[in-house]
Amino acid sequence: MLSSAELLNFANSHGIPLWAMDAFIAALIALGLFAAMGLGFMVQVYMERKVSAGLQLRYGPIYVGPKGSLQLVADALKFITKEDVFPSSAEPWIFRLAPVVMFAAAFLGLLVLPFGPGLVAKDLNVGLIYVLAIPSIGVAGVIMAGFGSKNRYAILGSLRAAAQMISYEVPRSLSLIGIIMIAGTMRLSSIVDGQGIWYIFLQPLGFLVFFVATMAELNRTPFDLAESESEYVNGYHTEYSGMRFGFFFFAEYMSLFAAALLTAVLFLGGWHGPGPVILAPVWLLIKVFGVIYVLMWVRWTFPRFRIDQVMDLGWKVLLPMALVNILVTGIIMSV
Amino acid sequence: MAGQISNFIDGWKSMFVGLGITIKRRRMSKATYFYPYEKPTLPDRWRGAPMLKGVMGDGSTGTEKFPNVLGEFNATIESRKKEGKLPQCVYSCPAHVDARGYVELIAEGRFKESLDLIRERCTLPAAIGRVCTRPCEEGCRRNYFDEPISVRDLKRFAADTCMNMSHPDPIPKTKDKKIAIIGGGPAGLTAAQDLAKQGYYVTVYDKNPQGGGTLLTGIPKYRLPKNVLKWDVDAVCALGVDLKTNVEVGKDIPLIKLIDSYDAVLIATGLPAGYTLGIEGEDAEGVWPCLELLKQMNFDNHPKIGKKVAVVGGGNVAMDGARTSLRLGAEEVHLVYRRGRAEMPARYEEIHESEEEGIIFELLTNPTRVIVKGGKVAGLECVKMGLGEPDASGRRRPEPIPGSEFILDVDTVIPAIGQKMDLSFLEGIDIKLSDRGAIIYDKLTLQTSNPKVFTAGEVVTGAGAAIQAIASGHEAAESLDRFLRGVDLKEGRTPQVMPKLYNYPRVPVEWIEPERRRAHMKAIPLEKRLKGFTEVELGFTEEEAVREANRCLVCDNENCSGCAMCARTCPMHSIEVERTGPQETERKVLKYNVDLTKCLFCGQCAEVCPTKALVMSKDYENSEYSKEKLFYDIERVLRRDSAKIEL
Question: Which helix (H) or strand (E) holds B82?
Fold first, then answer.
């Protein structure tokens, strides 16, 4: 973006140093993304409540705001005004930094995700690798939360979460090799441009592995072993309350949005859709929320896996499937 | 390997089945409630110790009466129905005559007040007390325990007892509007009474020599003596209604003249004409339309009929025709009806009494031809019918069986197969008629296409009981009052509350103590009945009437009437009721005690309580009770002496 000649001229003529201009624009982008994510967070939480209520014959929130849509505002006020409970035996800095690390990792992942043609903070040529790698730092946050809490439930939950997230990282990455082979690029916007036919049709097996692995990566039911209420109270964020818990919550829904966006970009044709280019973000958002709906639908349908079943599924089923997918793709491409 | 693959497929399949199940639930109705509208899971009268709200005659609350307030009566009835304070006898009556109220007044020995209350809604009490189809008794909640109260007979008793008293005083004419009513039957006289009470000048035109309409011409004298009807009509006329008899509108005076000279006109002419059979030989000598026969006989011109009579039809009129023929000297009366006994529209008692008097029922038979010899009836050819599929009215459709024709050897045929309107006087008047020749009117206001002309009675309700005609007469009176005051006819008006007939299961009454059974009027013996036209039923004596009226449970007034059904129902015998005596007239409650150490809080006593005086207090904690709620002693329970009931 800084390569834009007008901006450079503007900075030169007004005597603004280049680093200040850079920082200003970066801050602007970060704020914009944060605002968008905040809005998306509200929509997603409302949607989750309504979808789960619908699937369980309940009404969900109905009192705050029209049809209960402002329930999250009430919740946020509650989070902010709540007492910040700090366990006396907790490791002070690790405990405090854990939500920040979680949040930062999830937020950084959004940097390369395109919201439309050209609507991307940084269109890296290794975007796919970046978007797989950076959010995985979140595992560190989980471990920090569990370790910092000095709580048996929390540490067990965080260890499970770490094991699960690292295990599923492997089939998740491998399932995308097929796409990279077909598209011949790792730049996300180029992958979208190359999707004359959606990759979900070209890579059905890859999509399946990717989708299941994404669910595990997001720590959502049926893979919510890290925070399984019936076993570990609340897993790694047992000791967190108030706005610190709010950050975990925010990070969780941000990763959900990022994962849905990545799925839409990689497999569902990105912003492609009928109508003028101006509608591209709309098409993308429709696809993203479609994916989010399916994720919620799955979450409120199935019971939780056991830890050994999770490991079995990851290493004995998904990994071979991803490898077979690469083999088949390669054979078909070479033939 | 194959097993693994099938397991794999099964696993994925089951996951999609699961997803399908959850998504279907989005379309289902919610299992939870909105918080402020949450419904309690326990019914209202459930749980907590039983508690009496009040005892009859303790002076706190009297039984509510329903006098006729023109323009507000329907709204009162509807609101009481919603509150659950409307007794079922009042609800099931089309005119909502306050049966509970007047029966209670009879029980207290206040016969004149009782008659006044009856007259509020039921215009011709003595006549209706003899001929009504008594829907109130079908609704009576006593059906649930043993047998209903003889409400109709008590009405007759109230009227008969007061028959030597003077008629009510005339109402002063406070309004200068004049109303003409065509037809002096129940509907016409009801509207006349209501409007005269409002101070209007009301003139009733009737073509018969005496008022009463079908009650005069169509009901045989042995059921309704003519002097009784005259007393009733005179009571209405005493209010200031001008009854012009022997004037037939359309013949003696044209309708257009009435419309011009009066402020409003009400057509209440009823259904004076009978349907014809539509078969060969119907115009021969010896074929008497049933209504004509009854009319002639009521005017004491005893018609000459033969020795062998066939009455065609199965309704109340046919029964009257058959029984009248017996009294006119017929020796053999056949009743020809094309359906079975169960499908007969006549009332059960009528059928029963007719059979008792020796009428031969030719069921599932339809006349096909009147055999005429020398211009006179010589027989009736009939065909046997079989019952087919049920038709629109729910009754099975009769179909003729070919080759089953036979000849009934009779010399008189009396068709009684239905009635129709005679609207010949409407010729040349701009009142719209439907394709079938009926007057088009507004269902709520009973107004015809001419705004000055209204209609009521059987013209509106179709062939039915007199009490239905009376109900429509009240509606017409309200419309006329609104019309003459210049108020909008529909605004703020509650439509007539339509009754729903209750269908109680039959109680095996033979096991019930005789003192709880319903009283029956004495009747003259059978051999005397057939000789003349004296009234068959003799009415109650005062003692019988008071006893019968005391059987009334005074439903839905929230005051215990001492029936002790709660004590009979209680599975733990925890309710103790002391009354003055075992007889129905001695039901005054002396003591009412609920033993809470035995009570299960099951609520059956509150469910069975006909008065809704006993309720579950919902105070589930026993510590909440005060003894006063559960215990009544004699000083608070004085039924007859201290009752303060105002009309």
Answer: helix B73-83
Ordered DSSP codes for A22-61: HHHHHHHHHHHHHHHHHHHHHHHHHHHHHHHHHHTT----
- How far B29 CA lies from chain A's nearest CA (Å)? 7
Q: How many CB atoms lie within 10 A of CB B322?
A: 27
What is the per-residue pLDDT for B197? 92
How many Cα atoms are found within 13 Å in the side-chain-facing hemisphere of B354? 28
Chain A contact probe: residue of B12, B15, B19 with most A CBs at under 10 A: B19
Question: CA of A9, closest CA in chain B: separation in Å?
Answer: 57
- Mean per-residue pLDDT, B103-125: 91
Minimal CA–CA distance to A259: which of A149, A129, A113, A138?
Answer: A113
Is pLDDT above 90 for A62? no
Helix (H, G, I), strand (E, B) or coil at A308: helix
Based on the number of CB atoms within 10 Å of its own CB, is B516 exposed (0-12), middle (13-18) or buried (19 or more)?
Answer: middle
* Domain that residue A209 falls in: 80-334
A298–chain B nearest CA distance, Å:
7
Q: Burial of B485 by CB count in 10 Å (0-12 exposed, 13-18 middle, 19+ buried)?
A: exposed
pLDDT above 80: residue B102: yes
Sorted by where each starts, the structural domains of chain B and their CATH numbers stand as 50-56+557-636 (3.30.70.3270), 73-165+500-550 (1.10.1060), 178-272+421-485 (3.50.50.60), 274-419 (3.50.50.60)
pTM over 0.95: no
All residues of chain B having their beta carbon less than 8 Å from the beta carbon of residue A300 are 22
Residue A225 in any domain: the answer is yes
Taking CB atoms and an 8 Å limit, are B15 and A302 in contact across chains?
yes
Closest CA in chain B for residue A208: B12
**Around Cβ B240, how many Cβ atoms within 10 Å?**
20
Each residue's pLDDT tens digit, A149-207: 888 888 888 888 888 888 898 999 999 999 899 888 888 888 888 888 888 888 899 99
pLDDT greater at residue B199 or residue B428:
B199
Chain B hits for A302, CB-CB cut-off 8 Å, are: 15, 18
- Which percentage of chain A shows pLDDT scores above 70? 99
Question: Looking at beta carbons, which residues of chain B come within 8 Å of A63?
Answer: 35
For B582-616, how does the pLDDT look when each residue is reduced to its tens digit (9 = 90+)? 676 677 777 788 877 788 778 888 888 898 888 87
Domain count, chain A: 1
Residue A42 near residue A286, CB atoms below 8 Å:
no
Residue B44, min C-alpha distance to chain A (Å): 26
A62 vs B contacts (CB less than 8 Å): 34
Residue A23 lies in a domain: no
Average pLDDT, chain B: 84
Which of A47, A59, A207 best probes binding to B when mutated, by most B CB atoms within 10 angstroms? A59
Q: Is A231 a member of any domain?
A: yes
Q: For residue B42, give how far its alpha carbon lies from the nearest alpha carbon of chain A (Å).
A: 21
Closest alpha carbon within chain A to B8: A317
Please say whether the beta carbons of A122 and A109 come within 8 A. no
Q: Which of A58, A63, A298 sits opposite B30 (nearest CB)?
A: A58
DSSP B370: E
Pick from B21, B31, B35: CB nearest A57: B31
What residues in chain B have their Cβ under 8 A from chain A's Cβ atoms? 15, 18-19, 21-23, 25-26, 28-32, 34-35
Please name the residue that has the structure tokens 């009509």: B233
In the predicted model, is pLDDT for residue B75 greater than 90? yes
Cα distances (angstroms) measured from residue B516 to each of B337, B411, B447: 38, 49, 48
Question: pLDDT digit string (tens) for A283-321?
Answer: 899 999 999 999 999 988 888 888 888 888 889 989 999
Q: Which residue of B has its CA nearest to A297?
A: B19
